[in-house]
Structures are given as structure tokens and as C-alpha cells.
Amino acid sequence: MSGLGLFTRTRWADRAGLLSVLTITLMTLAAGVITPFDPQSRVAAAYLAPSAAHWFGTDEIGRDLFSRVLQGAQLTWLPAVTVIGLALFFGAAVGLVSGALGGWVDLTLQRVVDLFLVLPPMLIALTVVAVLGPGIVNTVIALVIFWWPWYARITRDEVRRLKGRPHFEAAQLGGIDPFCLWFRYLLPGAVPALVVAATLDVANVVLAMALMSFLGLGQPAPAAELGAMTARSLESLTVYWWLPILPAAAVWLMCLSANLAGDGLRSVLRGA
Q1: What is the DSSP string of 22-69?
Q2: Which of 271, 259, 179, 272 shows the shortest CA–CA distance to 18?
Q3: What homologous superfamily is domain 3-271 in, according to CATH?
Q4: Residue 5 neighbours by CB distance under 10 Å
Q5: In whole angstroms, what separates CA 76 from the centre of its chain?
Q6: Domain residue ranges in the chain
Q7: Is-contact 206 254, C-beta < 8 A?
Q8: Residue 225: which of 215, 238, 237, 236 has the closest Cα?
Q9: If you count DSSP H runs as helices and E runs as strands, how many of each does the chain have, helices first?
Q10: Contact, 200 vs 21, CB < 8 A?
Q11: Neighbours of 3 (CB within 10 A)
Q12: CA 248, 253, 254, 256 torsion: positive or negative?
């Protein structure tokens, strides 16, 4: 069955999640072009409620909140996807080597993976960012360091399962080059599980990025980070509700979309 046919047979919520992730990605990539106002400049009076002129209202300085939320989504979503991509690449490489070689190599690599898995990732990531200093690059580095072991474990388990399959044993007896065996018969079999896990993990990384900026470990002001905007305006919740609620709602929407997309991909891959 074609990919389009599988897509049309998934639940409407799964399709909505996949389309939402695509929309969010395109909007964040084009944020610098589609923002109606300069996110850093005062464009109107302060504390204007949401209206046709300013969809999300204005903040305490008079900056357009919709433009700032859109830029904040870019500073959260794209780094989160980068974290997942880098962690997936490194973790899959370690897991492939570990599962394919086995023996003492597997034992050694798995002890390293276990060491990272038993550490509280968010606490250690916060510590790394506090040591390196706030900023997007340091946040990405900290999260990648403690996210790759999950993908290493998934890849290793899938590779060990595939090594026992008849087609792999036949390829071995046929004298095929070991590296060709790895990348033709082992790694592709682990891709579906990795893709689903990575898609579902986007929401966790988005929350981690937002939490770090909420705690002041993200980009320094006046960068429009969603967590930082929420933290700075919490005292205004009962008066100017849109200031903390709308940036937080953007984080919630990104997490919901990523989770629905992960469920949708899982349904599509199972149907394949």
C-alpha cells in the first residue's frame, strides 16, 4: 500500500498531528519573513489586549506578542529538532556498533549507556548549561549529551533481534562485507522504531528547552523565548492574562502536535 493510502487510513487525530508538525516546522523556518512586526521593537501601546490589529496583544513594552511568540517557537522548535537529530545520529551509531559486534565491545558500550541512563537527565543538563553558560548552543549540547543513550539502547536491541533472522544469517554465509551487512540488513530494520521514538521525544525536548528558558538558562533578554516570556509575565496573569498564557499555549501546542504525529507515524508504520 502506498504511503498516501496509509496516511488516509490513519485516525483524524494522527493526521492532524502530522500536518501540525509540518505546519509548525514551515512556520518556524519562515518566522523571520511572516512575522507581522519586528519582535524586538515597540509597535503600539503597552498591554493591549488581543485584537484584529495585534492577534496576541502587546507586552509590557508595546511589542507585538504574536510576532514574539512566533520567534519564540522558532527558538524552541528548531533547536529541539536539532537535539533529536544529533542524539539520534550518535545513539544509532553507538547502538549499531554495540549490537553488531557483541562481545566485550557490546558489554563496554552498554555499561557507558547504563551510566548515562541512571543519571537524572534534566538535572544534569541544567548543570551543564549552568557551567557552560546560557544560550541555545549550550542548551543543545547539554540535551544531546544526555539524550543519545535512549536511541543507542533502541538500536542495539533491534540489531540483536535482526541478527537472528534467517535472511541475515544467509547474507553472512554468502560472504557479504560486514559493513554492508550492517547498513543494508541491520540498521534499516531499526529505523521504524527509532523514527517513532524520535518523533515522540520532540515533545519532551520542547518542554526541556522551555523549562531551561523559564529558569533563565536560555538566550539572554531580549530574545523572545517562550519559557522566558512566561516566567517574566506570571505576575500579570490575573490582569494581562495573554502575556503568560499565549506563550505557554504555544509550547503546549507544539508538544501536542509532536505526540499526535508520533502516534500517527506508529500507526502508519504498523500498517505498512
Answers
A1: HHHHHHHHTHHHH-SS-TTS--S-TTPPS-SSSTT-B-SSS-BHHHHH
A2: 259
A3: MetI-like (1.10.3720.10)
A4: 10
A5: 9
A6: 3-271
A7: yes
A8: 215
A9: 13, 0
A10: no
A11: 9
A12: positive
Grid coordinates representing 18? 502530522
Rounded to two decimals, what is the model's pTM? Answer: 0.86
pLDDT tens for the chain, 272 residues long, are 445 554 455 567 667 778 888 999 999 999 888 999 999 889 999 999 999 999 999 998 999 999 999 999 999 999 999 999 999 999 999 999 998 888 899 899 999 998 888 877 777 777 888 788 778 888 888 889 888 999 999 999 888 888 777 766 676 666 676 777 777 778 888 888 898 889 889 999 999 888 888 888 777 777 788 988 998 888 888 899 999 999 999 999 999 989 888 887 777 666 54
Question: Counting every residue, how long is the chain?
Answer: 272
